[in-house]
Structure formats: structure tokens, C-alpha cells
Amino acid sequence: MVMTEEMMDAIEKDNMVFLATATEDGTPNVVPIGFARPIDNKTIMIVDNYLNKTRKNLENNPKASLVIRDASKAPYQFKGTVEIIESGKYFDEAVDWATSVMSQLAPKAAVLLNVEEIYSVQPGPDAGSKVD
After folding, report:
1. Which of 16, 34, 44, 96 could make an S-S bridge to 113, C-beta 3.0–4.6 Å?
2. CA torsion, points 63, 65, 66, 72, in degrees to nearest 10?
3. Whole-angstrom Cα distance, residue 2 to residue 8?
4. Rounded distance, CA 125 to CA 123, Å?
5. Within 13 Å of residue 43, how many CA atoms lie on the same side as its CB?
6. What is the pTM of this model?
7. Structural domain boundaries in the chain
8. What is the CA angle 75-83-61, rounded to 5?
9. CATH dotted code for 5-120
10. Is residue 66 within a helix (H) or strand (E), and if so which, with residue range?
């Protein structure tokens, strides 16, 4: 699945997204994330600054879902599989980005959400429909 420019711009410009994960047995967890942006049209980077339950969930069940705070700008839900990166190019980018905004942050990882499915969250008869 490929994100459009509109989708990527909305993620980049919104300063808050919500990331949903679940434990291995299916207990849901949703957290606000202040550092998320697309790195290409198939991948969203999330900076792990304070992820606790979420990080544990992702280590045991790497599936996640993300929506931006202002769904009127991008009424989409992004679902996929994550990869947790603790060193290298993407980790360095995450550290540089987070510390340039708040110098006291010490990111633990870059979490890459590989977008596999996109769904509409636009109110109306097509709500919940998969975007082609």
C-alpha cells in the first residue's frame, strides 16, 4: 500500500498521532505520539522516547495502527507491521529530530511502521472502507 502526498503531508504537519497496539493476547493499548513522520510513501517513523507498554506490545506483537489527531486533514487509518531500530541511519535520524525539538530527550529507538493497509475514517457510508 502506498501513501499519497496528501496523507504524508498530513502526518508530517500534525504534531500528534495516535498509535494503537495490542498484547499477544489481544489487550488493546492506544498512546499519543508527538514524533511521527513519513520517511517514504510506505513507511512512517515513530520516535520511541517514552514507550513502555507500547514497546513491549510491539516486541511481542509487531502489528500496529496509526491515525493522526486531526482526521479532517487526513481521514485515514494506517495499519502495518513495525520494525524497531536501535542503531544505524534511522535511529540516528530519530535522535537528531527529537533532540533538535527537545534537547532533554533521549530516544530509545526508531519504530518504523511499514504501511500495509489504509482505511477511511471519514464519517459517512464509506467509513471503515479499505482505500485502494
Report:
1. 44
2. 160
3. 10
4. 7
5. 10
6. 0.93
7. 5-120
8. 80
9. 2.30.110.10
10. strand 63-68
**pLDDT tens digits, 56-114:** 999 999 999 999 988 777 799 999 999 999 999 999 999 999 999 989 889 999 999 99
Closest CA to 110 of 61, 43, 26, 11: 43
Side-by-side strand order, sheet with 36-40: 28-33, 17-22, 63-68, 76-85, 109-120, 43-48, 36-40
Q: Position of cell 479532517?
A: 72
Grid cell digits, residue 132: 485502494
Cell numbers placing 86? 536501535
Cell matching residue 94:
530519530
| Residue with grid cell 504501511, as numbered in its chain | 115
Return the HEC string of 65-96.
EEEECCCCCCCEEEEEEEEEECCCHHHHHHHH
Please tell me whether residue 100 adopts helix, strand or coil conformation. Answer: helix
